[in-house]
């Protein structure tokens, strides 16, 4: 029992997605923007922003404060920044929204506890602390809602649908976060209408990483073991795919990302191989939203507790019984040489689908994913040697 408890504690203490644990090279954080055209990097010295669709070009850099989190709002000059707390005057409880093109700070958001994660989409900013989630409108930076007293989420596990679409009716502004720190259940929350949509039983063990696709229709999850990933339809809770990285070797999953067209899911870990899975072979009818929105039932009474327990059990067993999901290995694999924590995303270019990778050592890779699943390395470059175009200087 003690050994099981000790292993579970160690796994549960792993770092959140996109924040790197091995910071020997000074890279603390990295994140691709909503369409994969830019990447932001937080370091012990500050932050750097890069264009990455064609080549790796530095857009700007700042060395005022160590950076624990930095995210770009699409291709604009707006960034959301959280300090790493290394210097005496650096705090992890403050979010700064800045326009780097005009070098002007727009707003500061102060919190009582450490900010663990940020998520941005076209309409909303989501700030995650261990026990609270704060939601703001991007247009005004006014807080629209907060989710208080959430289950402890020390790793800042959260996902927000990008909604990078022309017609807002084509997507749902959904947020996903753990229902408990010791179980594999997930809340799916509609931040636009301020309501809980559903509870998904994703894994038996705690969830290490989650991702929502562009439209909010697909939800991917990984457990602390890092061997099995599952993809669900958010509207129906139906399990569409069970995906395997391996059968025995565990891995710390750092990040998961759907391509903007939702055809692929890339999974990054602390290993040397990035796995890319196909996620476009399900029946579209499985994504159809039900007429009745599910709400969590009260558990204050024994009847309420029994109802929730039975509902969760049925929800977990139903996909397996009806065999509505498929089990698959990765469609494509890309190798970065030595094992290293990394993040990745898949974008669509004139060449086809391209896998972008950035490691905790600051190495940037670009791989062309061919139709047969093979990967051709197109670019390998270090962020520390990337040049700044003359017009950006």
What low-confidence regions span 5 or more consecutive residues with pLDDT below 50? Answer: 1-17, 296-300, 309-325
The count of helical stretches stands at: 2
Question: What is the structural class?
Answer: mainly beta
Helix content: under 10%
**Main sheet makeup:** 5 strands, mixed
Q: In which order are the strands of the major sheet placed?
A: 17-18-19-20-24
Compact summary:
With 393 residues, this protein is mainly beta. It is built from two helices and 29 strands.
What does this structure look like?
There is one protein chain. It contains two helices and 29 strands. The protein is mainly β and 393 residues long. The strands form seven sheets. A five-stranded mixed beta sheet has the order 17-18-19-20-24, with no helix packed on it. It has a four-stranded antiparallel beta sheet with strand order 1-2-3-4, with no helix packed on it. A hairpin with a 4-residue loop joins strand 7 (94-99) and strand 8. The radius of gyration is 20 Å and the shape is globular. The termini are far apart. The model is unreliable at 1-17, 296-300 and 309-325 (pLDDT under 50).
Task: Name its key features.
single chain, 393 residues, mainly beta, four-stranded antiparallel β-sheet, disordered N terminus
């Amino acid at each position: 029992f003690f050994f099981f408890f000790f292993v579970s504690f160690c796994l549960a203490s792993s770092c959140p997605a996109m924040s790197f644990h091995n910071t020997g090279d000074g890279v603390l954080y990295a994140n691709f923007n909503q369409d994969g055209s830019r990447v932001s990097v937080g370091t012990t010295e500050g932050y750097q922003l890069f264009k990455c669709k064609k080549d790796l070009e530095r857009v700007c850099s700042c060395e005022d404060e160590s950076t624990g989190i930095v995210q770009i709002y699409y291709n604009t000059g707006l960034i959301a920044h959280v300090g790493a707390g290394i210097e005496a005057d650096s705090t992890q409880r403050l979010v700064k929204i800045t326009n780097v093109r005009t070098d002007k700070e727009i707003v500061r958001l102060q919190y009582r506890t450490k900010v663990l994660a940020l998520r941005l989409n076209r309409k909303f900013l989501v700030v995650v602390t261990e026990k609270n989630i704060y939601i703001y409108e991007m247009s005004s930076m006014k807080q629209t809602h907060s989710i208080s007293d959430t289950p402890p989420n020390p790793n800042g596990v959260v996902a927000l649908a990008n909604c990078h679409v022309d017609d807002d009716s084509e997507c749902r502004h959904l947020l996903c976060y753990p229902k408990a720190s010791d179980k594999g259940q997930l809340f799916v929350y509609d931040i636009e209408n301020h309501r809980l949509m559903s509870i998904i039983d994703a894994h038996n063990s705690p969830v290490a990483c989650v991702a929502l696709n562009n439209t909010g229709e697909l939800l991917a999850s990984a457990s602390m073991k890092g061997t099995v990933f599952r993809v669900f339809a958010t509207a129906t809770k139906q399990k569409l795919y069970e995906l395997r990285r391996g059968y025995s070797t565990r891995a710390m999953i750092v990040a998961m990302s759907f391509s903007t067209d939702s055809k692929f899911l890339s999974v990054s870990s602390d290993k040397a191989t990035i796995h890319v899975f196909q996620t476009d072979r399900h029946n579209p009818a499985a994504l159809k939203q039900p007429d009745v929105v599910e709400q969590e039932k009260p558990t204050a009474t024994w009847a309420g507790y029994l109802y929730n327990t039975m509902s969760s059990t049925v929800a977990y067993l139903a996909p397996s019984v009806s065999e509505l999901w498929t089990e698959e290995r990765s469609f494509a694999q890309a190798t970065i040489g030595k094992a290293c924590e990394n993040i990745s995303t898949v974008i669509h270019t004139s060449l086809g689908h391209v896998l972008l990778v950035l490691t905790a050592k600051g190495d940037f890779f670009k791989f062309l994913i061919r139709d047969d699943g093979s990967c051709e390395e197109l670019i390998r470059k270090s962020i520390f040697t990337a040049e700044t175009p003359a017009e950006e200087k």
